[in-house]
Amino acid sequence: MPESEATVLAAAQAGNEQAFEQLIAQHRVGLHRHCYRMLGELHDADDALQESLVRAWRGLGRYEPRAPVRSWLYRIATNVCLTALARRTRRGRAVPEEAAVSPYPDRLLAEPAAVQPGPDVLLERGETVELAFVAAVQLLPARQRAVLLLRDVLDFSAGEVAGLLGTSVAAVNSALQRARSTVERERHEARVARPHSPASDQVEQELSRRFADTWRAADIAGLVRLLADDALLTMPPEPRRVVGRDAIRAFLSTVPARGRFGSFRVVETRANGQPALALYLGETPGGVAHPHALLVLSIQEDAIVSLCRFGDPSLFARFGLPSSLEESP
What we know:
The chain is of the alpha/beta class. It folds into 2 domains: about 5-190, RNA polymerase sigma factor, region 2, helix turn helix motif (Rna Polymerase Sigma Factor, Chain: A, Orthogonal Bundle), CATH 1.10.1740.10; about 195-320, Nuclear Transport Factor 2, Chain: A, CATH 3.10.450. The chain is about 50% helix and about 15% strand. It has helices at about 5-15, 15-40, 40-60, 70-90, 120, 130-135, 140-155, 160-165, 170-190, 200-215, 220-225, 245-255, 315-320; strands at about 195-200, 225-235, 240-245, 265-270, 275-280, 290-300, 305-310. α2 packs across α4 (about 70-90), α6 (about 130-135) packs across α9 and α8 packs across α9.
């Protein structure tokens, strides 16, 4: 442990709360992402991070710096998440066929300006907050989920993961193999969302802008022309899936706002590293509009391949979105 970190640790263990905040600052964002990937739901990730930090503060006096602070914090956070998942199972929420997932605001992906990215963030591999990946992870048994994320996302060694989870290296390797197979199959089947792989950032920006403008114009036929032939529309946590341009056209023409498509107002945002729309709905055309749903887009090459709708208005505040849109001029 570097001398400076040892000094901060000693002060924190002596009861200095500011030193504790300094000790965990570079890990906070990464820990929140880990809790989100483990639990799939933003509000649950908030609760798990808070509980993890409370446990870390209370247990700081027993921490011995034989292992890095990072490993100690991730052991605590992983165990908090495993307990939360066990609680879900007892309540009957852990249904393998239904991935419990909510969107993650891109604004939470950035480190605060005063904090350097921690090693947990720098070591993250691939598109690890992509909606399709997070949704696929939710279909794993809890310990397979932990192994996959600790090994393939956060780059802990098999030996480190075995120590964190209190198991053997052989058990970790076996769980990892099974988890990788399940996630790959689920990403291919895409029950919730398809992988996001636009041809370029420019293509992504242009296509998402056109989609937002076309939605504002209440042009359903124009929206459908921006979709891939086999595009997918989902509405977690409902199991309903609408597949194909014709089916999505029929859905958009009749279901949202009971067919009053022109009553929507749109604000562009981002979730899970992907373009998204915040949909507001007014009771009267041009009147005050209130949060209705978030729509996350997945793009492959130059077409939109999936639309994932989340109908929880409480998410809007976490995205930094207005609580309402005033009357149009």
